[in-house]
Design a protein that fits this description.
Chain B: This is ABC transporter ATP-binding protein. The complex is a heterodimer of chains A (about 280) and B (about 575). By secondary structure, chain A is mostly helical. Chain A has ten helices and no strands. The chains are: A mainly alpha (about 280), B alpha/beta (about 575). The interface between A and B is medium-sized, with 18 and 31 residues.
């Protein structure tokens, strides 16, 4: 599959560029602290809200901290939250979706109607509510956002499972007396993996946006720890003094989310055998 | 009228052009029915698409010409081609349900087809559509005009398709497997209809099929294709009495024909030089380690059904009260150990519901299923587990019944893993042994199902069914999706394995000739009831029930045997 992805990437520039951007962002998330040219927490009251200069390539923030260094380490908590949330949503959402499609009627009613109810609220609203009760931090944000995206995964897993369960090999498994666990993990799960992988990429993008939104409102990552959303929120107050302060994190955030969405979109085409061009 | 000269078609692949059709020549004269026969993958459908100018984007015509009344179709612009289609050349597809648009009524679709090519008013077109439906002998044409495709049966849909095809009095009709998806009795009606229209309208018909029986019934001349090449062209009479090419001879031999029961069916083999020939393989001898043949005389039947019933509750319309639909109605029969019971019936007669009830994928409403004398009809899922070892099933569709994400060794070992039998080493040895038994190379174990052909996949399914050495194997239309020659191989295999593993078969099929070939006893099912039940020889020699007789008459048979039967 990796070979296929690379072959397709070569023929599609947008996909290629997105993959590169994504790789760079992940590299930043892992090695940001080493890459940072200066201490991202060092306060310098004499150089507040400056523009680009030889010393501070992207300028400084309201406390005179180096913007480039803060941007480099600011992606890490966001990424941790996004990936953690996606993992939580993916595991529980997929299992619930499978149970909703394959389980007994009352169970499936319970699961799928709860999913419908949860989907009828905008996630940011529920996130605000949940974050209000809990202490902010990477872990709690990941859990809250993860739970919020469980219904999305459940929906995808549900419809994919419904398709798979109509196939004859499911009947064959039952005729052999297979246990429910075996049916779920060897017959259903491998066959619904491709839509779930696509959903996972899209959820990472959505979780990044949601975390950034919460941090923007001051309910996410707690200062002095930076995150891009939080930096945009702070920079809003200094638009007049240093317009580039708000532009850099916004630009990076938009690029990252765009890249993930493009990759997820193309991944769907690659993984869906019906759209596969030979 | 239609002349195909030296037509070659190739598929574009990453490794360059892969030829699918090589140098095909044939002509169709006005009023003639030309049969194009071959197995799947022989290039017959791609030939017909090439003739219509409907090739898929990854196929290209590499040589040759297709002349319709002297005009080369391949050199026409798309606009000119569109005019020619429908007016001169019309097409009937294999799956009538899928080729009609589900969201328009049948009447609208016929009217649209008429208006595309004729400059008349809509009311005139409607009147014409109604006439056409009468012409194709649809009961209640006015209602059919208002019906959506899903409200009609497969045979009725095919009639609508035929009505659309003849709507503009085309000179040539290309029918691609027009009856493959239909029951024998419906098939007979549709073939009669095609024949009648051919005489009445005077259109030439190119009939593409894998079924020699269909060719025998309606075609005037036959072109036999194999691996993209024309093997033989002859009049139907000549082909069946005196086939010249080895392949045509082999193909005719491998058909299980009604009334000509042999122990083994001949299969088509290809030797190293590429020559095709027909071989009647010797039955395999029972291996010594299998032990002596168990004495089954006078013992209880392995499986006995007593008054088995299974109903569905259906609502005729959303607001009405549910009505009971007896899918299986008081069915009783018995199968002695090491014999085969053939269960025949048309689609919708309840034979699949019956098979699912016997293996307890569904719960029967009443009646008994005695397996080795014990009633399993009311057992719970956990009480059923020991019996799942004894009863195995081979499903109809070899493409659907194997999990595409598992390797062959995982698939074949699955029943052993489920009951927790043996360690991985022992399971591996058993898988290898089973692959030998069903005639697959051992290297197959590490491959995935999509790497195999339909016949090979059915072998994998058979190997899986045998993994726990069951005593009863239910074959639900197990060979229906396969080509004639592959079908012969699988049927031979099933017979060999019956001897080798002491198997008892419940063999479900709609194909009477296959059932006659494999069965010791036969049960004929109609609308949920068994209408006739008895030894196979008796039923096929002297059917008592009118329905059985009708089924037997509807099967297209190849002349000689049929004449003999009439004389008896």
């Amino acid at each position: 599959m990796t070979a296929r992805v690379l072959r397709i990437a070569r023929s599609q520039p947008a996909f290629m560029v997105s993959l590169t951007v994504l790789a760079a962002v992940i590299f930043m998330a892992i090695f940001g602290a080493w890459l940072a040219p200066q201490d991202p927490f060092a306060i310098n009251p004499s150089a507040v809200n400056q523009g680009s200069s030889a010393q501070h390539w992207l300028g400084t923030d309201e406390f005179g901290r180096d913007l480039l260094s803060r941007l480099l380490i600011g992606i890490q908590p966001t990424m941790l939250v996004a990936i953690g949330a996606t993992a939580i949503a993916g595991v529980f959402g997929s299992l619930l979706g499978i149970a909703g499609a394959y389980g007994r009627p009352w169970l499936s009613f319970l699961i799928m109607r709860s999913v419908d109810i949860m989907l009828s609220f905008p996630p940011i609203l529920l996130a605000l509510l949940a974050v209000g009760f809990w202490e902010s931090g990477v872990l709690s944000l990941a859990v809250v956002i993860g739970v919020l995206y469980i219904p999305h995964f459940a929906r995808v897993a549900h419809s994919a499972t419904l398709q798979v369960t109509r196939q004859e090999f499911m009947e064959a498994e039952r005729a052999m007396g297979a246990s429910v666990r075996r049916v779920v993990f060897t017959a259903i799960l491998p066959n619904i993996l491709s839509p779930l992988v696509v959903q996972a990429t899209l959820t990472v993008a959505a979780a990044i946006l949601l975390e950034s939104g919460l941090s923007f409102l001051g309910l996410g990552i707690v200062p002095p720890e930076p995150s891009w959303g939080q930096m945009i929120g702070t920079a809003r107050g200094y638009l007049a003094q240093n317009p580039m302060y708000v532009i850099w994190p916004s630009l990076l955030l938009a690029l990252t989310v765009l890249a993930i969405n493009v990759v997820g979109d193309r991944l769907r085409d690659i993984l869906d055998p019906r759209l596969r061009e030979e | 009228m239609l002349e195909v000269r030296n037509l070659s078609i190739a598929f574009k692949t990453s490794a360059g052009l892969k030829p699918a059709v090589r140098g095909i020549d044939f002509t169709i004269n006005p009023g003639e029915i030309l049969g194009l026969v071959g197995e799947s993958g022989s290039g017959k459908t791609i030939t017909s698409l090439g003739v219509m100018g409907l090739l898929p984007p990854n196929a290209v015509v590499t040589a040759g010409e297709v002349l319709v009344d002297g005009v080369d179709m391949l050199k026409l612009s798309p606009a000119e081609l569109r005019k020619l289609r429908g007016r001169h050349v019309a097409m009937i597809f294999q799956d009538p349900m899928a080729s009609l648009d589900p969201i328009f009524t049948c009447g609208d679709q016929i009217v649209e087809a008429i208006l595309l090519h004729e400059n008349i008013s809509k009311t005139q077109a409607r009147r014409k559509a109604l006439e056409l439906l009468e012409k194709v002998h649809i009961p209640d044409p006015a209602r059919t005009m208002r019906s959506y495709p899903h409200e009609l049966s497969g045979g009725q849909c095919q009639r609508v398709m035929i009505a659309m095809a003849v709507s503009c009095k085309p000179r040539i009709i290309i029918a691609d497997e027009p009856t493959t998806a239909l029951d024998v009795t419906v098939q007979k009606q549709v073939l009669d209809l095609l024949r009648g229209l051919n005489q009445e309208v005077g259109a030439a018909i190119l009939l593409i099929t894998h079924d020699l029986g269909v060719i025998y019934e309606v075609a005037d001349r036959v072109v036999v294709m194999y691996a993209g090449e024309k093997m033989e062209e002859a009049t139907t009479q000549d082909l069946f009495t005196n086939p010249k090419s080895d392949y045509a001879k082999a193909l005719i031999d491998s058909m299980p024909a009604l009334g000509s029961k042999h122990g083994r069916l001949p299969v088509i083999e290809r030797d190293d030089a590429g020559n095709v020939r027909s071989v009647r393989p010797e039955p395999r001898i029972r291996p010594a380690q299998a032990g002596p043949v168990p004495d089954s005389a006078g013992r209880v039947p392995l499986l006995e059904l007593r008054e088995l019933c299974k109903s569905y509750w259906v609502k005729p319309s959303p607001l009405s009260t549910p009505v009971e639909m007896r899918a299986v109605d008081k069915v009783s029969f018995a199968i002695a150990p090491r014999t085969t019971l053939g269960l025949v019936g048309e689609s919708g007669c309840g034979k699949t519901t019956l098979s699912r009830a016997v293996i307890r994928l569904s719960n029967p409403d009443s009646g008994q299923i005695l397996f080795k004398g014990k009633d399993i009809a009311k057992l719970s899922e956990s009480e059923m587990l020991p019996f799942r070892r004894e009863i195995a099933m081979v499903f109809q569709n070899p493409y659907g019944s194997l999990n595409p994400r598992q390797t062959v060794s995982d698939l074949v070992a699955a029943p052993m893993i489920i009951v927790g039998e043996g360690d991985s080493g022992e399971r591996g040895r058993r898988v290898a042994h089973l692959l030998d038994a069903v005639g697959l190379p051992r290297s197959a174990a590490s491959k995935y199902p999509h790497e195999f052909s339909g016949g090979q996949r059915q072998r994998i399914a058979v190997a899986r069914a045998l993994a726990l050495k069951p005593s009863l194997v239910i074959c639900d239309e197990a060979v229906s999706a396969l080509d004639v020659s592959v079908q012969a191989q699988v049927l031979n295999l099933l017979k060999d394995l019956q001897v080798e593993f002491d198997l008892t078969y419940l063999f479900i099929s709609h194909d009477l000739s296959v059932v006659e070939h494999v069965s010791d006893t036969v049960a004929v099912m109609q609308k949920g009831r068994i209408v006739e039940y008895g030894p196979a020889d008796g039923i096929f020699a002297a059917p008592k029930d009118p329905y059985t007789r009708m089924l037997l008459d509807a099967v297209p048979t190849i002349g000689v045997e049929r004449a003999e039967r009439g004389a008896l």
